[in-house]
Amino acid sequence: MAALLKAAGIPLHVVRDLNDPLVSKKARRGGGTSLSPGSVFPLWYWLTRAVAGFVWFALFTVIVFSETAAPWLILPLATAAFVAPVMRLALRWWTRLRLRRHSPVVRDRIRPAPTDGLGATVRFRRDAELRVQDRDLVLRDVGGQEYWLPLTGPHAVTSLVLVRDRAGTALGAELRGPHEQVRAVLSWRLWFGGKNGEDGWSRLRQTTGLRFTERSLSGKAGWPKGPTLGAQPLPESGRDARGLSRFPSTIAGVSSTAVMAFGSFFSIAQGLRIEDTHPGAGMAAILMGALGSFLQAAPYLGHQLSSRLWLDRPAPAQTPTESVV
Fold first, then answer.
1. What DSSP string runs through 234-286?
2. Is the pTM of the predicted complex or chain greater than 0.85?
3. Of 30, 114, 263, 285, which is most buried, counting CB atoms within 10 Å of its CB?
């Protein structure tokens, strides 16, 4: 780990005392980089949300405490509330566009070919993959998270090891780096045990060009040993799979969603309040509140329905090919 951090230019400090200045409350407040997905969202998204949030809160305060029902207050309030779900959809569009524009040279894509009866889902067969690129070997899990393993440089993956049990049956493959360090593991029954699995295994060996060896377990040793990347490719439940695959949230989490829902509801309530005296402004506020609620709920409902009805269901049975390993 120390060598990896050194190669990446990241200073390493060893702290053995809770009173060390590096881990003081002041140091934690003043520095560091957030690894939350929200930290990479574009500036235009945060600025628009901040301005709309400030306008909405100011108008909300005036309306509640003055008990006024002026359309020139309610209409901007509903517009500000409507901005939040629209910006969320714009952020999703921007993220997809950015991912499509990022197109590294891919030599091959190895999809999992699981043996029947292991609980492999449609999502696992569709989204999980092992991608061989010019300089990297990329392991993608069911949630879309990618783990990039270099094929060149001092920390490159250098060998592919086939692991067998004491009876000689293939258990899986290990991707090893320098000094035989296990970087990731691939369960044989999940990745290569089913239909077309042998073809994927052959392509993996050919396209990576990694040094290939075999080893057999001895005694009562289990495999894999300890927590290792790829050791648990299948989530424990459909709920876990849906949580892993949903669009990333910011540090506000559920609180932001609750405020957005309340803003849309408040717009509808205020629109109904002035509909008799100012039908145009009232109807506009009601429509923006209703549409905002729909735009907020649609991605969540779509994700839940597609997951429950299709993606998190067992994958169709595949006829395994004869093993030559």
1. S-SSHHHHHHHHSPP--TTTHHHHHHHHHHHHHHHHHHHHHTTT-HHHHHHHH
2. no
3. 285
